[in-house]
Amino acid sequence: MSQDVTIFITDRNGVKHEVLAPTDMNMNIMELIRSYELAEEGTVGVCGGMAMCASCQCYVLNDVVSLERNPDEEAMLWEAYHVKDNSRLGCQIPITEDLEGLEIEIAPEQ
Amino acid sequence: MIQTDILIIGAGPTGLFAVFEAGLLQLKCHIIDALPQPGGQLAELYPKKPIFDIPGYPSVLAGDLVTNLMEQIKQFQPGFTLGETAETIEKLEDGTFIVTTNEGTKHQAKAIAIAGGLGTFEPRKPVLKDIEFYEKEDRGVDYFVKDPEKYRGKNIVIAGGGDSALDWSIFLSNVANSVTLVHRRNEFRGALDSVEKVQELKNAGKIKLVTPAEVVGFNGSERITAVDIEVNGARMKAECDYFIPLFGLTPKLGPIANWGLEIEKNAIKVNNALDYQTNIDGIYAIGDVNIYPGKLKLILCGFHEATLMCQSVYNRINPGKRYVLKYTTVSGVDGFDGTRKEAEKAVVKSID
């Protein structure tokens, strides 16, 4: 059985949550946020994970995951608001065993 | 006033399929949608992307699914009020409803089916001084292309880097006098054939490309006469009759949120044990817009919900009237337009 990883997520109200994420369900960070209901339903993952809405924008707070964005993600973030150097789209970060200890903060609503 | 049996709010796959199931029960439908074309998210967000979980289709492009649904329901002659948002609802003493759109179009119906998906798609507007002035009363800022003919012979500036900016630039280059496409980056993000086509039209001088650039201001006292564009820190002016920013759409539940419906998690609570009716008798909510224990936001679930909703509306409109479920293979499909679809009869013939 594959290992769950622990991820720290700060929600839009500034509350920090420690959550367990499965690594064998083909999930991404956006889906993890939705599964723990850490943001109001309908305000995160609006496009379903196609990198087309930026509602799952997160700030990466430690170096557990690369800040390198894929081309779709880069294009979307160019048009989004509240974008910082450490912005990524949660839906473009697959949950793998390498993410143990990742810390992120959910960006404000678009 | 438009009169119908079921007024469907939302022309996505769930709303479209409801027309078919209603038609089998001899119920007429009319659909309101805020977008200028039917299809909802499928047409607006990802028409060229495949869907793999429609039963019976190993893969179907979202745009093709919408085309097929429109073909499937056409004999039931649904009416459409497109490009308008359902704003207010009034329940009359006889149990019927009057729904009025933001443009004042009135619809009277015996039942309402809200199939609003994620909500009304509202355009993401660029933050520009005076944009609220120019977006009104045909003063030159449009967020949707509703009627391409409006732009015939005009000078158009389009802003954006996605599929809709690309596709409308291509389309309008054949209609307008000139098309200028402005985008913040040199890279565009869209279907490969769209990007290549824009490249071709640019080379042929039919689309003027300005990148990396941004529209930063307007000129014109009564309506737009030109926009200011900032390219690499320098300013230029582009004469135009219309400026169309296409920066994507954000869904909002919108005015429906004020109809007195029970809302939970940005969705409308329904009775899933029976018929997907809301807390208001006669108003149903189907597809992604509703919520109940175990809800899954899948197109196939929307189809199921639409079917049960139609049965409930039939009973509501025809209390006590007998009806049995019919199979289309056995009974065929009789359209309101006089057409009939039916299975070919098997022959009864001896074989020597």
Automatic annotation (TrEMBL), chain A:
PROSITE patterns: 2FE2S_FER_2 (PS51085). Residues 3-110 form the 2Fe-2S ferredoxin-type domain. Gene3D superfamilies: 3.10.20.30. The keyword ATP-binding does not apply. It comes from the Bacteria. Keywords: 2Fe-2S, Iron, Iron-sulfur, Metal-binding. This is 2Fe-2S iron-sulfur cluster binding domain-containing protein. The keyword Phosphoprotein does not apply.
